[in-house]
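Sharing a chain and its predicted structure for anyone who wants a worked example. Both blocks are below, sequence first, tokens second.
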Amino acid sequence: MALSPKERMQAAEDAVRQLEQALSGVGVTFPSLGVDGVSAAGLYGLPLVDLGRCNLDTALRLAAVLHERAHP
């Protein structure tokens, strides 16, 4: 069963919310995190999550968190 446009957008918004909470839990904030509007307008597949842009401090914090996770 295919998802309706409303269900597709809800699924994408839920994914963004979960990612935002997970990143926040490790001290990382992506100020431009959101649903990609172009892919959300399509009829097939799920919309893409746009991670957006981040500053150098955010990129380094994310790299450190990922490194810590990969090498505990």
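Comments welcome. The chain has a mean pLDDT of 89.
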